[in-house]
């Protein structure tokens, strides 16, 4: 069988969420709105944290990095989908597809690591409040971000090298709105056993370890909170980690929903619709969760908006 495995010599076709022509303008409008809200909301979080000295703390430093990762992840998938709908051209080159696979994997795992880092920060704040300043010093915070980025890049390089060595026989159709790793591997006409093993191994290592850290941190937080006798202490502890816990539940709950849908769905198109809950919705809702549930963030955003309005 004649194969093509040179980057750029092969085209894939992203079938998107629906092939109904009448739905394309509606989908374009919805996803354009989602993308603009995601970028604007997360950008406001970053600007608010950087402009307000009261938010120059480890918690908001990690939050601003999470917002940046949200913007990057959404930019990796949604704009290409909008271009495809607008031009009515569903094709993407093999090189472009490989880059999309790598960037989606990189920023998704970076979010995993950042959520684990934020959970550790909340663990120190609640379980060791007197030592918080000494433990979460700026150098450690920078090292945690650097380590999270390094882990994400290493995992991305492994996935990129793995996909790069796949051979594809002809132009292929991906029943998705972006190049999702599992779908790309399914289209290969070469042996994919090693690829599947490496994918599951990388998912376990780079996804399972951060999740285990989050679970451990919150188990210690719950244990410490239960020892408090006052309702005020309970409320303070919940307000400290409530927003982060909501984001964690949204992110991993959506991921679990995609996994379950992949096991029970009777069509790849339904899996693509379910994956929106993992790659699009959490990134859009994160700014609302942190701004609506956090008094300091609401105050900083109000000051930022007033400052921008005065400049206009």
Description:
- The protein is mainly alpha-helical.
- It contains 11 helices and 3 strands.
- It has helices at about 25-50, 60-85, 95-125, 130-135, 140-165, 180-185, 195-225, 230-265, 270-280, 280-290, 295-310; strands spanning about 10-15, 90-95, 170-175.
- The protein has a 3-stranded mixed beta sheet with strand order 2-1-3.
- The chain is globular and about 65 Å long.
- The termini are far apart.
In brief, what are we looking at here?
With 312 residues, the chain is mostly helical. The chain has helices at residues 24-51, 58-87, 94-127, 132-135, 138-164, 181-186, 193-226, 231-264, 268-279, 281-292, 295-311; strands at residues 11-14, 91-93, 172-174.
Key phrases:
11 helices; 76% helix; disordered N terminus
Total strand segments: 3
Question: How many angstroms separate the termini?
Answer: 63 Å
Series of H and E elements = EHHEHHHEHHHHHH
Which consecutive residue ranges, at least 5 long each, have pLDDT under 50? 1-8
> Which of globular, elongated, flat, extended, rod-shaped describes the shape?
globular
Mean model confidence by pLDDT: 83
The helix tally amounts to 11
| Beta-strand share of residues | under 5%
Q: What is the structural class?
A: mainly alpha
Helix percent reads: over 70%
Largest sheet: 3 strands, mixed
Rg over C-alpha atoms, rounded to the nearest angstrom? 21 Å
Question: Strand order across the biggest sheet?
Answer: 2-1-3
